[in-house]
Amino acid sequence: MTTAPKPVRVLIADDQTLFRLGLARLLDEDPRITVVAQASDGIEAVRRCRETEPDVVLMDIKMPNLDGIKATEQIVASNPGIPVLILTTFEADTHVLAALHAGAAGYVLKDSEPEAIITSIMAVRWGERVMAGPVAQRVLGMLTGETTPKDFYDGLTAREIEILKLIAGGAGNKQIAYKLSISEKTVRNHISNMYEKLHIFDRSQAVLYAARKGLVQL
Hints:
Layout lengths: L7 E6 L3 H12 L4 E7 L2 H11 L3 E4 L8 H11 L5 E5 L4 H9 L4 E4 L4 H12 L4 E2 L1 H12 L4 H4 L5 H11 L4 H8 L3 H15 L4 H10 L6
Parallel strand pairs: 1-2, 1-3, 3-4, 4-5, 5-6
Helix pairs in contact: 2-3, 8-10, 8-11, 9-10
């Protein structure tokens, strides 16, 4: 008679209480998973990881006191046998690469199907690396040099990305021109090129794009 494998013991770290509680409830419904601890910031995550020694840590990136990247670094340094799976809404390459450099074993998006999150937990538990589909190819491309950050931002130049960040921060054309020491006409030309590349038509759409790519927080 074969014995059923022990469920994977998971620690969830996320400052959004409703999301964290909802995810914990979903995971606990699966016999393969048991949630042994929760944390609302990076400091608590590091402490609870030390106390409970989970099999896998599910770690949000943007948290107060200590963010998920730094918390991941600390956990990996003190508990190298505990894989950290980054769980976030951000698709930006900077966040993905920072998480991997910190020692994360994987990266999944919060809007993934529950089964996909569970599968990812099981995979990192047994030593595999996982990556969310929407960003996997871009990240692998950047790591191998086949893709540049420019490709990730739909062909925007470094200057256009700079202007996009300023627009998302609420700056007008005159303020952008002053800050970058260029003319307002040049700013307008950059914005026009940017809109054409992104197939957008106004600043509100630009702000949403910037937020989706992790360039700003709304």
